[in-house]
Amino acid sequence: MSPISLDRWKGKVAIVTGASAGIGAAIAEQLVEQGLQVVGLARRVERVEELAKKLKGKKGKLHGVKADISKEEDILNAFKWTSDNLGPVHILVNNAGLTQKTNLTTEGDTEKWRKIFDTNVMGLCIATREAVKIMQAKKIDGHVIHINSTTGHRVPNLPGRNVYPASKHCVTALTETLRHELRHLGLKVKITSVSPGRCATEFGNVTDPKILEQMKNVPRLKPENVANAVLYVLSTPPDVQVPELTIQAMGDEF
């Protein structure tokens, strides 16, 4: 098997949402290592800037931009900054995701439900729309990658998941819907959903002692495992489409 090569993306611009920690930070770092100009969007932009300092001297460069993916204006401003300062986006990685401690019944919190959908669904859709508009206008054969979840394909038997699985099922449907739209438009823009299983990140930290005990021995991915999966997807030839890629730790049954 040939080694992974991202030569055709060197010097090109990638936007990674939710780049301050975990999977997003790992993806941003790997893309910089491969020679891309990476724009890391995050509310905690100081963390992205810290990572950028550590990556000084690498083939590419990381640029931190403060943005809350649940806010359309922040997304529009981030894309404008990117176009004005670095050039048109070639790769979009929709990584930003949110979960909230609530449920669907007696303690269901409407605002928390809304925050989940605003980030996991609406923010993803807005960022994707902006990226595809640029790719179409500039005739760029780009790539959009949604960081989904195995929860977007099956619902784990864990309490307190509330609307999070529904939001990730939306991402699964949106991936396929976008693939059809891109084909009908005649655009050579790829779309891939990468669905990790349990991952050792800050995201979705659990505090319930019963759930912690239940999950104590559940194998988990490392963020760099997911980043490597993204690199693989990006390394495929222009005429090869990978609509869905699921990645789990050995023995992960969640």
Descriptive terms for the model:
seven-stranded parallel beta sheet, 7 helices, 15% strand, globular
What this model shows, in words?
The chain has helices at residues 22-33, 45-54, 72-85, 110-137, 164-185, 209-215, 223-235, and strands at residues 13-17, 37-42, 61-66, 89-94, 143-147, 190-196, 244-247. It is α/β, with parallel strands linked by helices and 254 residues long. A seven-stranded parallel beta sheet has the order 3-2-1-4-5-6-7, sandwiched between helices. The radius of gyration is 18 Å and the shape is globular.
Short description:
The chain has helices at residues 22-33, 45-54, 72-85, 110-137, 164-185, 209-215, 223-235; strands spanning 13-17, 37-42, 61-66, 89-94, 143-147, 190-196, 244-247. The protein has 254 residues and is α/β, with parallel strands linked by helices. α2 (45-54) links the parallel β2 and β3 (61-66).
Strand content: 15-25%
Which strand order does the major sheet show? 3-2-1-4-5-6-7
| Envelope shape | globular
The total beta strand count reads 7
Major sheet: 7 strands, parallel
How far apart are the termini?
31 Å
Helix content: 40-55%
Rg (CA only): 18 Å
Low-confidence runs: none
Order of helices and strands: EHEHEHEHEHEHHE
Number of H- or I-type helical stretches: 7
Summed over residues and divided by their number, the pLDDT gives a mean of: 93
Class based on secondary structure composition and strand pairing:
alpha/beta
Assembly status? single chain
